[in-house]
Amino acid sequence: MIERRPYDRLGGGDHGWLNTRHHFSFADYRDPQRMGWGALRVWNDDEIAPQTGFPPHPHADMEIITYVRQGAITHQDSLGNKGRTKAGDVQVMSAGTGIRHSEYNRETEPTTIFQIWIVPTRRGDQPSWDTRPFPKGDRSGQFVNLASGFDGDGDALPIRADARVLGATLKAGETAEYRLGDGRRGYLVPSKGAVEVNGTRLNERDGAAIENERVLTVTALDDAELVMVDVS
Predict the structure, then answer these.
(1) DSSP for 143-194, written as a single string
(2) Which tens digit of pLDDT belongs to each residue from 88-111?
(3) pLDDT for 55 beyond 90
(4) More exposed terminus of the chain, fewer Cβ within 10 Å: N or C?
(5) How do residues 152-188 score in pLDDT, each as one tens digit?
(6) Which CATH number does the domain 10-132 belong to among 3.40.50.300, 2.60.120.10, 2.60.200.20, 3.40.30.10?
(7) Region 136-231: CATH code
(8) What is the C-alpha to C-alpha distance for residues 136 and 47, in angstroms, rounded to an integer?
């Protein structure tokens, strides 16, 4: 089963400094049919105006993954961490027992991000933050792990969840496959370009809620950049 969730039908709105769309219930957007997808709780598609951003605010007991689509995001937190994550790269914040952080667009152009929240498998751990570059050439024609709760997933950023966050880049006409394990779900969004997933067309920034599909065959209709969460 693949349920397409068109970008133009997502919740959210334009707040001036922030133009956001919510794939699941978040903030003022409430849809009892879209409270999450397994342990995946939030997928926000945010465009942040230059020299603006999210001021310091707290989180606890959540794995928060940021995929930067365009521009760069500058992070600072109560642990003393500071860092800048640019387009194509990923940062992970494990909120644990509690952390305060800010996320600002210090660039001269809008920054666009996917903000992904996954419920952790355990509570009470110390908070942490990290960022890592993921060259797009390394994921050309295939899915690679960007963040993972599983040992042995290469250079993926660690998360405390029964989940993987994956990325792929495909040339128009190119195909990649991904196998979902028993009882696993997928949520896939093309960051750029249009694709077909097992025959279902997704336009840029559409979501696809996937279950009971053992093998995903993704064919790029344009040059495409994909982000997917594999979750229980």
Answers:
(1) -EEEEESSTT-TTPEE-SSSEEEEEEEE-TT-EEEEEPPTT-EEEEEEEES-
(2) 999 999 999 999 999 999 999 999
(3) yes
(4) N
(5) 998 999 999 999 999 999 999 999 999 999 999 999 9
(6) 2.60.120.10
(7) 2.60.120.10
(8) 21
Please give the structure tokens belonging to residue 194. 């249009």
Conformational region of residue 212, where left means phi above 0, alpha means psi within -120 to 50, and beta covers everything else? left
Distance CA 44, CA 50 (A): 18
Torsion angles phi and psi, residue 226, rounded to 5: -120, 145
Amino acid, single-letter form, for residue 144 = V
Q: How far is CA 97 from CA 7, 123, 125, 147, in A?
A: 34, 7, 6, 20
Residue identified by tokens 């642990």 is 79
Neighbours of 20 (CB within 10 A): 20
212/217 Cα distance (integer angstroms): 14
